[in-house]
Amino acid sequence: MSAVPLPESLRELVIGEVPYETRYTKKFEMRTPYVPPDPRHVRCVIPGIVLTVAVRKGMRVSGGDPLLVLEAMKMQNQVVSPHEGIIRAICVSAGDAVTKGQVLLEFE
Amino acid sequence: MSTTNKHVDFFRRKDHLVNGGANRASEKQMALGKLTARDRITALLDVDSFYEFDLFVEHRCRDFDMDKKVLPGDGVITGTGSIMGYPVCIYAQDFTVAGGSLGLMHARKITKIMDHAIKMGMPIIGINDSGGARIQEGVDSLAGYGEIFYRNTLASGIVPQISVILGPCAGGAVYSPALTDFVFVVDNISKMFITGPEVIKTVLGEEISMEDLGGARVHSEISGNAHFYARNELECFHKIKQLFTFIPWNNRKKAGRYPVKPPKAKFDIERIVPMDSRKPYDVRHVICALCDNSEFLDVHAGWAANIVVGFARIDGETVGIVANQPMVLAGVLDVDSSDKAARFIRFCDAFGIPLITFVDLPGYLPGVDQEHAGVIRHGAKLLYAFSEATVPKITVILRKAYGGGYIAMCSRHLGADFVVAWPTAEIAVMGPEGAANIIFRNEIASAADPAEMRRLKVAEYTEKFANPYVAAASGHIDAVISPAATRDFLIHAIQVSANKSESRPYKKHGIPPA
Q1: Which domains does chain A carry?
Q2: What is the model's pTM?
């Protein structure tokens, strides 16, 4: 870290272990930090509306079992279980509008 | 009918059509800060230079009571004219006629003038202000779009193509501008998107305003779809005229020569670049200190500002400039800056404009977002574009040129014709800190005082390699020159490369990374 604070518009960017004094772009400021995927979470891959939920909390499901039906882009998409497990929580209910990346349900 | 009556009849017909849409619609247009289509053409072209095509064209739709509707000029004005004596083909969609909607005849008027532009070797300017496809005409309207896209692609690299977005341009319509060379947008007036806010809300439940989704600022700062941003229409027309001073009419002609004017005294080449390579400066000052009259036309000024591209003149000749910008993100290469530079380089190469590259970069931007966004394939576009270009390529290394960044910035290895470096240049495989840590890892780890040993080793590496002479010793650069001698060198390089010819093995076309 630099000892002397940078002029207001100047920020620090470290490339190859060297801290450079520079400005950020709007897009760079807007970037979101990376979060590693949690295998216990089933996330929504496309924004849409939840039509039906096929499972209940505490249910044991195997990989490939239907979890819920998501209507997106005028298509009914079946969301299936990626692996075997017990449902710990269902985060959405029928009729909910969901966005991309939103957690739909959680496994134990 | 007597001759006089025929003339009266002609003027009556013409007057009716020239007045276009209803006055009410024109007033609405003006209230939004927009000129009418005809006024835009008048404002952009030389006085009395416009000759109209197809004023009497009529649509042929017979469904949905369309047969009872007269649409003057079918909602678009097309023709030829000149800008500062420079011949151009132009079309302007007329929002006051059926919302500027695109029907088959509307599209055929556009494709006719585009064909004319390609044949005659004139630039084509399209002023877009349209509600989109004319739904009543159904698939005929879609056919119209397709025929325009086809010609945009045929014209690419033959004649300069300019799109001016002065109103909505939504859905399929956006792909014509996207296929053209330069897109101009105006604050609060331009709106571009594939799917509008309403569709997004219905389908996805996300709410966003038109301006935040596809306004002028978004496209000039976030998406990069627009190359030039203006605050109002007249400023936009001024910028178009400025661009025309730099570019040739077509790919068989050279850009016009202008009287030589020296750079302005306020840009002192000796005082712009700080010695400490961690300190920023505005590379545009270096450009202005070297080019004629310090006049530089910044392309894509607001987007991916970590690289600067644009047009200037050296000794009266147009040149294309590509320069790392240490003032923004330390001048790194990333997804957007690679795209921005690659596209510009290909324009210059297609239209015979020599390229001057100024190098000062620490390397590529690290980050998961960059890797996942495909910085590999995007970065490859820059290598491809520089290697593919056969126009004169002149490279000046100002300060840092490390690793892959050094190679990508038009190094000798990518076929540069002249590569020179300033005495402040550091051409090395990586920055001294990183290099010392790897090369002297064991010495540093086993030292009694690792921090002190590290400092010493960094200093040792800097002393030995952070200079232009190692690269010069291998002939990777041709010369080390002083900042003060740089303009004379550039003038010389442009002059001696006037007859450059470089032939490549035949191919139908290359396959650039996308």
Answers
A1: 41-107 (2.40.50.100)
A2: 0.92
